[in-house]
Amino acid sequence: MRIAGSWFYNxxxxxxxxxxxxxxxxxxxxCCAAFYMxxxxxxxxxxxxxxxxxxxxxxxxxxxxxxxxxxxxxxxLAGLKERxxxxxxxxxxxxxxxxxxxxxxxxxxxxxxxxxxYEHVNLSNLTDAAxxxxxxxTNAAIHEIIGEFPEYIRPPFGCWKPNLDYETTMIEVLWDVxxxxxxxxxxxxIAQRVLGDVGENDIILLHDASESSVLAAFKIIDELKAQGYxxxxxxxxxxx
Length: 240
Hints:
CATH topology: TIM Barrel
Structural class: alpha/beta
Largest sheet: 5 strands, parallel
Shape: globular
Number of domains: 1
Helix content: 40-55%
Low-confidence stretches: 1-44
CATH class: Alpha Beta
Radius of gyration: 18 Å
């Protein structure tokens, strides 16, 4: 577990706890027990209330990296809207700057937007200054379009420098299920890889960069909804 400037998401679903920046002050005061805090304590009131109303709902989060894509993101958004599903999109800054209208559509569709770096580079291989620039530049581009700064980051390849937690105050979000959809053009294969591995409160990793991935997402959603799952954003999964 790392210390985070804001929140940290531990990929293992049995350990979804955070280290809060405020915890440093707690340690200095000898209040170590306060260093661990449930994310739900800091969640928006409306989200906490919604979760309290029905804790029996089987939840799963579907996420998409590397967008927005001019060929497939809008196709994906249409399918998500048709199915009444909320998703999380981790966007690349350079794509955000090229396709701002698609970013607006993601936001207006009620989906959660996070950061995926500016150029899809391994942030752990960069200097601190260069890594921070990758994050800040992307956040600024997103803010310019939707008027909000992202709170969540999925670092490319899942590689993150622990000290960046202090510098960026982003919530790092990884995943539970990765079908490696980039490695095949067979939507059915992608879907089966997910369906054979997914469980309650899992975070599914996909990309909106190919037709096969989008079609696989629809297959996954349709099957999991038939099994009684509700699709939520990663924010709600973190509150479990």
